[in-house]
TrEMBL record:
It comes from Saccharothrix saharensis. Pfam families: Flavin_Reduct (PF01613). The lineage of its organism: Bacteria, Bacillati, Actinomycetota, Actinomycetes, Pseudonocardiales. SMART domains: Flavin_Reduct. GO terms for molecular function: FMN binding; riboflavin reductase (NADPH) activity. Residues 9-159 form the Flavin reductase like domain. This is Flavin reductase (DIM6/NTAB) family NADH-FMN oxidoreductase RutF. Keywords: Oxidoreductase. SUPFAM superfamilies: FMN-binding split barrel. The keyword Ribonucleoprotein does not apply.
Length: 170
């Protein structure tokens, strides 16, 4: 019997982001977005982050073509946006028109209204099992006012009741 990796990982709380990319078709730019919770800070020098996407993902295909994407780190008020961008491609593209976003100055990928965001350019990619890990160099980033973060735990979106560690510990 294979290990119950999915069941075990359901107990790991993760942050929730929306990744955006695009593909150009002549004078038309088609944007796409997908909800991800597999984001990891890899290196500070150079500044690198990674995310993992299913091999058959059209979002991944667009990202590998464009080699540019943005990550918007979501706050607790963005659970509906996370749900919208976790569906099929047609639903995600439709959702993008209703979300407050603007093209990033460095990549052209859409940056959503979020407490923090990153613009990335492809550094490398690795096929790992049924996913591809993409590593991006962060070419722009911003952190606004801290807001209660959106988390994913046990198959549900959740928020923290307290954004500060107890007793000032970190």
């Amino acid at each position: 019997m294979p290990p119950d990796l999915r069941g075990a990982m359901r107990n790991l709380a993760t942050g929730v982001c929306i990744a955006t990319t695009y593909v150009d078709h002549g004078d038309r730019r088609d944007h796409d977005a997908v909800t991800v919770n597999s984001v990891t800070s890899v290196s500070l020098d150079p500044p690198l982050v990674s995310l993992c996407l299913k091999l058959e993902s059209r979002f991944l295909a667009d990202l590998l073509t464009t080699k540019k994407w943005a990550l918007s780190i979501l706050d607790g008020s963005a659970a509906a946006a996370a749900r919208l961008c976790s569906g099929d491609r047609a639903s995600r593209v439709g959702a993008l028109s209703s979300l407050p976003a603007s093209p990033g100055r460095h990549t052209g990928a859409l940056v959503l209204d979020a407490p923090s965001w990153l613009e990335c350019e492809l550094w490398d990619s690795f096929q790992l099992g049924d996913h591809t890990m993409v590593v991006g160099e962060v070419v722009a980033a911003a952190a606004g006012d801290p807001r209660v973060p959106l988390l994913y735990l046990r198959g549900r979106y959740r928020t923290l009741d307290d954004t500060d560690p107890p007793n000032g510990e970190e």
